[in-house]
Specification:
By secondary structure, the protein is mainly α. Helix 1 runs antiparallel to helix 2, helix 3 runs antiparallel to helix 4 and helix 4 (66-80) runs antiparallel to helix 5. The chain is 67% helix and 0% strand. Mean pLDDT is 74; it is low at 127-131.
Length: 143
């Protein structure tokens, strides 16, 4: 099955972060692809694969590789919503996936995901990010 927090994964994640900071997106993408494929081998999704997948999907989106980003986000989405459960972080994955679906004119799929988040999710569905300041958080908590 593999070691959940293996050293190679940690080194790869750090190296990919350095490459991204140096605007070497292709190198970062290569490392993250290796880690992602290792973490999702043989139909299994090993611990912390989601973190790798989210970073890789973000790079794919920046490179206009929407189909690849969509594939990764779908795997993570189905993992986070498996067996009728709604695991932490599913909201973020679902909203990103719904945005890609909407750009691909898959309105029904986007709507289905947003409805699931509305019913079971932790974050409200709004067009902008949640407020970061403490005063705004208090204000919206009361609403």
């Amino acid at each position: 099955m593999g070691i959940p927090d293996d050293p190679a994964r940690e080194v790869g994640m750090r190296l990919a972060a350095i490459y991204q900071n140096k605007n070497r997106q292709k190198d970062a993408m290569g490392i993250l692809e290796i880690i992602w494929h290792g973490r999702t081998a043989h139909g299994r999704v090993l611990p912390r694969a989601d973190e790798v997948g989210m970073r890789l999907a973000a790079i794919y989106q920046n490179k206009n590789r929407q189909e690849d980003a969509m594939g990764i986000l779908e795997i993570i989405w189905h993992g986070r919503t498996a067996h009728g459960c709604f695991f932490p972080g599913a909201d973020e994955v679902g909203l990103r996936l719904a945005a890609i679906y909407q750009n691909k004119n898959r309105q029904e799929d986007a709507m289905r995901i947003r409805e699931l988040i509305w019913q079971h999710g932790q974050t409200p569905i709004i067009a902008w990010k949640q407020p970061q300041s403490i005063n705004l958080k208090r204000k919206y908590r009361r609403l």
